[in-house]
Design a protein that fits this description.
The protein is α/β, with parallel strands linked by helices. The protein contains 22 helices and seven strands. It is elongated, with a radius of gyration of 31 Å. The two termini are 54 Å apart.
């Protein structure tokens, strides 16, 4: 770099930008470029464009630094003291590094100082700089990539996007945890769109295990792990559990318009459908809202789901349908929460779980490859859907007696009957179908697969509670299609925490 260029650059921070653009254009118009492949030219342009963008950002920061210095220098000590809470002494040339999606840049700013007081950097507040060295843009990219896949693949994606290593694995984990801190406040500030009284309000709850690192299990699971004595050294035998998982609780709240159906709209009759009658579709979920937690217990997550339901229907004018999988503890918590709020709920046992129990029971009477097993399940399911679950249970037991099955041979059949009997109050499917209610919890089952299995159940993953909670929480925000709004909210909250001022604006979030 010659002296003339250095002088020009000092006078105009954007001089390097024009020099870089000229250099890139010169390379692309050189004789060598005429013989280069398009791939090589494309790579050259990509690298040059990224560097051009970094130089633009750096030039802008230098330009702002000069104007800040001129402005603060023009103020007298008393004016600076009034501006900065008693700090009147001006120091120039304070620098900090900032890693951005365009590459590393240097932020130069002035410090206002006072005896016994921490430095104040007005430019930090004006720029909205975070506490660490990673820009909000880079943090946003790290969060989206880490929520999508493993941290290793996230770092590879960030490196490709930014043209070099901008963040380490431990740093990425810290950034994800820091990014999730405002999710609860974000949803508390939002008011859901209202719906007509005839629109169903549907709640469903499920749980999914996450493999945890030692020391991050719930107390009961940790005690069970300490007591466990496995049959085999290298694998688990039938019925044994590894005791390495901590249960995450998920809840889904959504709206749906009633859709009246009949049993044969749900299950095909023996021999299949004729095609003479169009199968009526069930209620379609819309305005879905997800919440999940591995840190909090099921009671807290269920309470959050009811908070969302009450925000949608504060006067309890709508019909509340709660879909369950038969877990006694969950149903007890749901009924307790509804009673506490004075809400009338209609609990429906997920028909998919019933059919799974019937499929297992069919193996007591048919082989796995026997086509008659399908008809057997269909007949029993149709009877249950018609409102005669007790009759279906009696038939299954009578059939087991008639075949003189032993206790082991009929275990699955007896289990299916007990499942129906224990949930007798929640299998009135004839009433649910006539009212147009959903009878399957596909929304929360899909959420369990998407939120947990697709990310936190990656082979080899072992989680801490803070790490799993952050990823799970952010994945719910993304699944709710709220991440763009949440990031604006989070950035504002970060600004308020890092740069509090007496006249700081109070930000509100509109739904």
């Amino acid at each position: 770099m010659n002296a003339a260029y250095e002088t020009a650059a000092a006078a105009d921070p954007f001089a390097r930008v024009f020099s870089s653009l000229t250099s890139l254009a010169t390379r692309l118009s050189s004789p060598e470029a005429l013989t280069a492949t398009h791939e090589r030219v494309e790579a050259d342009v990509e690298a040059g464009s990224r560097e051009l963008g970094r130089l633009l950002l750096q030039a802008h920061l230098e330009w702002r630094a000069r104007r800040e210095e001129d402005h603060l220098s023009a103020l007298g000590p008393q004016e600076r003291a009034a501006l900065a809470g008693g700090r009147s002494r001006l120091e120039r040339g304070h620098r900090r590094q900032l890693a951005t999606v365009l590459g590393p840049v240097t932020v130069t700013r002035c410090a206002l100082r006072g005896a016994g007081m921490a430095n104040l950097y007005p430019a930090d507040a004006m720029l909205g700089l975070p506490h660490g060295r990673h820009s909000l843009g880079l943090r946003r990219l790290a969060v989206l990539e880490a929520a999508r896949g493993s941290y290793d693949t996230a770092l590879e994606a960030i490196d490709r996007s930014c043209g070099g290593r901008m963040v380490g694995k431990r740093q990425a984990e810290d950034l994800v945890r820091a990014a999730a801190v405002d999710v609860a406040a974000f949803y508390t500030a939002r008011t859901p769109h209202p719906a007509p009284a005839r629109t169903l309000l549907v709640i469903s709850v499920d749980q999914k295990g996450i493999v945890m690192r030692p020391g991050h299990l719930r107390e009961a699971t940790a005690k069970a792990a300490a007591r466990a004595r496995h049959t085999f050294r290298t694998r688990l035998s039938t019925g044994e559990k590894s005791c390495r998982k901590r249960m995450a609780t998920l809840a889904v709240v959504h709206d749906a318009e009633p859709a009246v159906r009949r049993p044969h709209d749900i299950i095909a009759p023996p021999g299949g459908r004729t095609g003479d009658r169009t199968v009526r579709k069930g209620p379609v979920a819309r305005a879905k809202w997800l919440t999940a937690s591995v840190r909090e217990d099921a009671e807290t997550v269920i309470a959050a789901a009811f908070d969302q339901a009450e925000a949608r229907d504060p006067e309890h004018h709508r019909t509340w349908v709660v879909l369950v999988d038969g877990a006694a503890h969950q149903m007890e918590l749901i009924q307790t929460e509804a009673a506490r709020r004075g809400a009338t709920i209609h609990i429906v046992l997920d028909i998919v779980h019933v059919i799974e129990k019937l499929k297992a029971a069919s193996r007591c009477f048919h082989t796995a490859t026997d086509p008659a097993a399908e008809d057997w399940v269909g007949i029993k399911a149709a009877r249950i859907l018609a409102g005669d679950a007790p009759g279906a249970a009696r038939d299954i037991r009578t059939e087991a007696d008639r075949h003189h099955l032993g206790d082991d041979q009929r275990a699955a059949a007896d289990k299916a009957c007990r499942y129906l009997e224990n949930n007798a109050d929640f299998v009135h499917y004839d009433q649910a179908l006539a009212a147009g209610w959903p009878i399957a919890s596909g929304a929360v089952e899909g959420a369990a697969r998407h939120l947990v299995a697709d990310r936190l159940d990656i082979t080899g993953s072992r989680w801490t509670v803070p790490g799993a909670e952050a990823v799970l929480t952010l994945r719910t925000v993304i699944s709710n299609s709220d991440f763009p709004d949440y990031w604006i909210f989070h950035a504002r909250k970060e600004h308020e925490r890092l740069h509090p001022l007496p006249d700081q604006h109070i930000y509100t979030l509109q739904a």
